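Exercise: predict the fold of this chain.
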Amino acid sequence: MNRDTLREAAAEFLGTFTLIMFGVGVVAQVVLGEGKFGEALSINFGWGVAVTLGCYVAGGISGAHLNPAVTLALAIHRGFAWSKVLPYIVAQFAGALVAAALVYLTYREAILHVDPELTLKTAGIWATYPQDYLSNVPGGLIDQIVGTALLMMVIFAISDARNMALPPSIGPIVVGATVFVIGMTYGLNSGYAINPARDLGPRIFTYLAGWGEQVFTAHDNWWWVPVVGPLIGAAVGGLVYDLFITRLYYKEVPLQKK
């Protein structure tokens, strides 16, 4: 790994760390405060702001993907270097895992007070779990594909210099707002993970921290859906944008600089 890639991966680590610290942190406060310190709106707003802040931390160095699905879609559709895909994804998962551990250390005593048996009630602070009515396939998979596709379409739009590209300093606010509105509109079924690192990294932490195998076996082994669904969704969202905008109007695909 060359120095530039290492530098960018480090930025992805810190940006994703920031995202998870605030995103998981707001869920922890709502759940452990048992409704006295926030509600669903707090979680949606908190995640939106968390994404914005994570983008500001890493954006000028790595482009602030903060999401393996975004990295994959940029490699498929925007010429992002395939040699950087694995370093970026490893850094994203590492940042999420470390942040999950720090949230746990911060709230450990509250967790043991509210849920000493370490059930899914508190495991849900770190990772998503679906409603009882939701099937893994097709329901859950469609849910994750749709949410991530919407996110990716907006990212492509605001970074397209021939459409309505935003100044770099404004882009993170719009991406955060997009995550906020996805939570407000498509958060019911399974909590809108739309990011494999955001979901699987903290889920692995809960497995190691005492919640055990239930975090993977719950809801007929739900865990893989918020990993695979976003990867498909981001690729689909990028394809849809290019079919309706890029290829119809420009006839060539803009490549990412990094």
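Check your answer against the key: The chain has a mean pLDDT of 95.
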